[in-house]
Amino acid sequence: MGCIDQLRAQSVAYKAIENDLDEFVESLMKGYVCSQKDSLTHFNDVVWGKMEFEKWEVQIIDSPLFQRLRNVRQLGLARAKFQTASHTRFDHSLGVAWCAKKMLSALRNNEKYNKVESAAKGSQEITLEREHVICLAALLHDIGHGFWSHLSEIVYSSFDEFVQMQSDLEDILNFQGAKPHEILSFVVINTPSFLKFMLNCVEYPHDSKNEAALKKVLEEAGKIIIGCNIEEGNSIYSFMTSIINGKFDADKIDYIKRDGLSSAFSIDYAEDELFQYMAVIRVKDNQGVRADYKLVVLQKGIPALESLTFGRMMLYSYIYTNPVVLVSESLAQDYLWGLWRVKKIAKISDFLKYGDDEILDIVNDTVLASKKPYMKPISKKNYDDITLKELSDKLKNRAYPKVRYKIYPRIEYKPSDETVTKLTELYDRLTTEEIPLSLDEFISEYTKITVRFHKITTNVTVEEFADKRGMNFLDERQAIL
Amino acid sequence: MISYKDTINDYESPYKDEKGNPLTFKSLPALKGTDFVKYLLAALVIKDKPITNFSNISKIIYDFKEENKQKYPEMLSDINFRVGINDYCSKKIDDGLLAAQTLGYMGKVNPTYNNIVIYFSKQEAENIFQSLDFDDDTKTKIKNGMKSLADKFN
Questions:
Q1: Are the Cβ atoms of B120 and A412 closer than 8 angstroms?
Q2: Could you list the residue range(s) of the whole structural domain that residue B96 is in?
Q3: Which CATH architecture describes the domain A3-233?
Q4: Residue of B25, B98, B103 lying closest to A466 (CB–CB)
Q5: What is the ipTM of this complex?
Q6: pTM > 0.90
Q7: Tell me, what's the pLDDT at A461?
C-alpha cells in the first residue's frame, strides 16, 4: 500500500481535505486542452535570463492550475512598502525548476573536478528518471500556495482540520515539519483529478500512460516538496529532497535573488561557484548496510554558501520583517478572519480559489460589505465601527494603522531619579520658549544621557518583531485606525 | 490558548461525514516550532549557560524528543526532523535560529561558529516563559521541559 492510500485509509482529515481540493482541481482543469508544441519553449526571466522547458513541463505550466500562480504574489503584501516587489509564485516556480536543472547538470559533472573519493561518489544515482521527478517537484513545489502567499497560510494552518491532517501526515510519513503550503502542494498533486490530468494531458517522459507508475512519481514529487526522504530498499536518496527542500536548495537560491532584486536590495552571491562545488556523495551507516546519497557542498564552496546564508538573513531583517509590511499583514490577517467569520472563506480550497486582488474585491457584495469583523479576543485592535468593506479599502489604499512603539527598559536598568529629572528638565527647556535651547544642544545632551538607555533597550524593542506575521504583532502597541 | 473558534458561538467544521454531520477534530495546543528556539535560549539563560555550544543542536533536540515526546507533547509536537545516516535536519530549528539572530536574541562568538552567546538576562528569560499563551500548568510543563533540554547542552 502506497503512502497516499495509507493516508486515505487512516486519516479522516486528509480524506476530507483531499476531497475538497480534488473538487477544486477538477473544476479548474475542466476543458483544458494541452499544448502539442514539440520544440523546447523559452521563458525570459529577470534572474536567470533565458530558460528552456521541455514539452511535458510546458503542458503543466500551461494548465489553469499552474497559471493560477500568476495571481499570487511571491511577497504577499510586501508590495505596500516595496512597490516593485510584485513578482509572482509563477515566476518563482519557473525559476526554481530552472535552477534545479542547473544544479543537476552541475552535480553530474562535478566529481571529476572536485576529487571526490571514488568510494564516496554518488552522481551515478542521478538517473534520468530521478531527474525528472526532481524537476516535477520543483515546478509544483508552490502549487498549494493561496492568495497573499505565506500570509493566508497563517489563517488556514490554524484550522483544526489542517492541524489534524498535518499531524497524521507527519506520523504516517515520519518526516520533518513542512510548511502549510507545502502540505497543500502535496495534497493537490496527489488528488485523483491531478493524476487524471497527468495521464490525459501530460506526456511525462517515463510511463506516461501507466497509472500506477505515474502515481508513484507524483507521490515521490510530493514527498520531495514536504521534505521527506525518498527511500528504496537500503538506500536513502536524500539529495533528491535536498535539491528542492534542503538547507541550500533551488528554492532558496531563486527566492533570495528574486526577492532581493525586486525590492531594490540586490543580494549578490556566486551561485555558479556554489554549483561548482556541490556534489552527491554516498555515506554508509556503521554496519555498512544502509547508504545515504547526500547533497553536500565541498569546502571550497563554503564562501558562496555563507553569502547565501547572509543574504537570507538580510532579507529577513530588511524585507520580511519591515514594520510597514508587518503592519499591513496584521491588518490583512484581521480582514481574513473577518471573512472567515462571515463564512466566505471556510474550506481550505477557498484559499486557493481567489487571487491576491480578488480577495479584496470579495466584499463588494452588498451583504458582506456591511459586516463588521469583530475579532476580539484574537485581535486586540478596535474594530467596533469598521466594516469589512472599509477594512478592504484600507488595505487597497494603504491606509494602515499608525504604529507607536512602546519601549520597555530592561528590568535591571532603572533610570535614576537624577537622570529622569535631567531629561524632564531638558525636554521642558526645549518646549518652553522662555528658556531657549537649540535642538542641536538638546540632542547632544539627550544623547549623552540616554545612550546607555537606548543601547540596552534595542533588543527589547526588536523583540516585538518576534511575532512577525503573528497574530500578536500589535498587542504591545497602540494601533489607531 | 485562545482559539479562532472562540470568536463565534456556533462553530462547526465545514467538512462533513457521509451522513452530513460536521466532522470534529482535536486541535493540539502546540508550541510553534519557530518559537521553540526562543524558549530554549531562555531556558539556557536560566540554567546559567549564556554561552553554549550549539554545534550539535539538531541531534541533541532529536534525541531529547525521542526520549520525551510522550512527556512533553505540547513542547515537542511541532518540532520534526528529516533523518538520514548520521544526519538530522530540522527546518523549524534553522528558522528559529535565523530569527533569533535577526532579532538580536543571540550571536555567534567565535570564528568557528560553534558557540553562541545569548543576550538577555535571567529576569527577561523568566518573562519570556511568562508570555507563553497557555494555562499555568502547561506553562510550567513547557518550562520544565525546556530546562531539562537545556541540561543537555554544554
A1: no
A2: 30-151
A3: Orthogonal Bundle (1.10)
A4: B103
A5: 0.76
A6: no
A7: 33
